[in-house]
Request: fold
Amino acid sequence: MSENTRPPGTAQTEESLARNWLQRIFVRSGVLRAAALPALAVFTALVIGAVIIAVSDPDVLAAWGDLFQDPLGALSETWFSIADAYLALFQGSFGSPAQVVRGIGRWIETGNTRPLLDAFRPFAESLVISTPYIFAGLAVAVSFRGGLFNIGAEGQLFVGGLASVYVGYAITGLPWFLHLPLALLAGIAAGALWGAIPGYLKARTGAHEVINTIMMNYIAFRLTDYLLQGGPMTRPDGLPITPEIQPSAYLPALFPRPVRLHVGFFLALAVAAGVYWFLWKTTYGFEIRMVGANPRGARYAGVGITSTVVLTMALSGALAGLAGANQVLGLDHRLVRGFSTGYGFDSIALALLGNSHPVGVVLASLLFGFLRGGAARMQSVAGVPVEIIRIVQAMVIIFVAAPEIIRGIYRLRKMSAGEAVHVRGWRS
Amino acid sequence: MPPVLQLRSITKSFPGVLANDHIDLELHEGEILALLGENGAGKTTLMNILYGLYTQDEGEIYVRGEPADIRSPTDAIRYGIGMVHQHFMLIPVFTVTENVMLGDESVRAGILLDRDRAAGRIGEISRRFGLNVDPSALVENLPVGVQQRVEIIKVLYREADILILDEPTAVLTPQEAEHLFAVIRSLVAQGKSVIFITHKLKEVLAIADRITVLRRGRVAGDADPARVTEAELAKMMVGREVILEVGKGQARPGDVVLDVQDLMVRGDRGALAVDGVSLQVRAGEILGIAGVQGNGQTELVEALTGLREAESGRLAIQGQVMTDATPRAITEAGTAHVPEDRQQDGLVLPFSVADNLVMNTYYVPPFARGIVLQEDEIEAAAQQRAELFDVRTPSIRVPVANLSGGNQQKVIVARELSRPIRLLVAAQPTRGLDVGSIEYIHSRLVEKRDDGCAVLLVSSELDEILSLADRIAVMYEGQIVATLAAADATKERLGLLMAGVREEQATLVT
Reply:
């Protein structure tokens, strides 16, 4: 009898069919199951990244050329190549624990905070990079919950930046507790408007929001170009940069330079909590989710579809606008052409990775932020190009969007209906 | 000769429920076996095990005497077992050929799709079994009855000898069901064996060679359709005497609650689906609208509940004009609507049972204060209503998608009948439900009527109309062709009216 046949009568439960601990996690349901897939996606992506790092390292290739003369050499060269790269990545993302300890020591001895701040800088910088991801990721997540694709986060981010920087430099003489909220509000309102327009068009005419939000992106980019290049918002010296905002509009920094961490990060966390409350604990959130889950049922239930769609897109746009305001008011204190490095587009992947839930979005944003934070050091210290990190990020996105790949690699069971990400097809 | 299929001692449990408890089942070649049982009795689980969608905890399957290890539908298909599901799995924008081919494509030169060869085979199967399906037709253009035949072809294309049909007549008109029975008889005459899962007692007696009844995961008994009665079958299914005809007292109609004048409503394709309908429903009476599906009943109900605009005409609820009012306004005027399509319109499947129980009332106190949802209140009310209306669910927090069709319908009924209402519009309220659930819903409808509610019942099941309605209006091609008192209605008379035969013509014929 071969090992594949079983005597009749011995059927198996799902549990016993789980051949290892990994599969057993998937059989149990709950939070662990929801987090397991993204975690595996990240792990697998890092493994693939490691392979690419090794394969693109000339020293490693040379060592493998001498495989038969020096097999251990090939292996150790590979190992060190990968280890150096990821160690540099880690130090770039988090910093070096040893350096932190030294910094504390120096501070105690001499009262000089600089070494400690330098040691803390990588970690803080990763949080800084994560912050606009959180806002933009929340924006797209909200739209997904409402059954809509907001591809316009980038444009909404731009107009949010424009509006808040204008309020920041054009209004003088206000105390910070009026000026800062006003500047933030301007960013929110501009983003909300930029989102509401495609939302309204979708609700009233059925015009698909994917097309309209993309077009609004282009309008936003060209608007920025116009305003900044010799237009009304240019600095007097002619460079495509706006004037600096008043200190009363700054998002306060939490530490002295070189650490750039400012209140924006904690504002993002608070906003994430707020989005959770709004979507799951209020009537408006209930309506948004109902329209996303079943528009026909929502009509039957008396929900105003037009107003809900507009609200969803406006809220989404507002959050993306906050991302722009965050960059302007907390980091640069002015708006520079190219101040956004594609946060709005990455955020679509983040929303998917976080399963359109605020907690997931925050975690996914932190992941991407930390990866990006370490990429520069990985390049300067280990000589690994930053594009590797883009590849890792892209792999994570692919694995989350096509879970069958991960399931195939690790031989896991099928998912239940509840796990599906709620994005519907082209026809809504 | 051994039976073509044998299930021995099949046992399967899920967290909290023993779905199949040592079930034995036999199917002989060329036989039509009916598998009868309430929702939750375990029929679908058993068939899913047979088809490889689940694996049994204990027990064996034997196909033609050989033990069969079925771990996936691919295995089942290899053993010659095919399943036609209740909810079709067809791609609307593909042709019949493409749908049937999907997953088992004919290829030329390795990667090119060979639609012609597949279409040829499909045509052959279609002719051989009397299915009459055009392989090049687009599925979305086909009526439901024909779509079902495409599902049957899918199964035959993969050379199944044992066919499992899950609730096949749930979506068919009486005529289409007759056609289906003819097809099944043809299949069996050519050597196929069929397991027919159903709740409908009349059908079982009409089509089956043998009946096996399941109740609460166990075999409750076998029966011979030639000898057993409906009442006996119902008793086996439910475990107690079942009232197949609800006993209702005389109606005591009061004031007019719903007043419809000359309503005209356009359908999806632009034609007038409702062509000048006038009717009135009084408090304390049930007006039944009889008619074959597709004669405008759906559009009429949509217009009455705010889901479709009327072209012209007037409708008033308790004197207030509500033509083209929003669904919310109509609900707030004291109307309840049990919709025809429970999953698309009546529920939000990914949401919890509790959320669904407040699906249209979440925005008022006590369920909300201002814009904040009061979760404790919602859960407390949901728990109470679920118990009161006998909704079988492990908890009110599970997604309502996990519930069986009957229990999903009970959620809708629990929601709609738990608030003070003057008008209840119930469209096909017991479609696809088992005897126990039907009995329950019928009794709640009569209860509401006796409470003084006006009830508009739209149903394509003549028995249901005859059993419940005090007055009956027959709809044909968008018009009410006759309104009669229940006492004056007979099946024959209604059947003729439903087919468009005017009364004057009928008397002329005789």
Observations:
- The two ends of chain B are 54 Å apart (CA to CA).
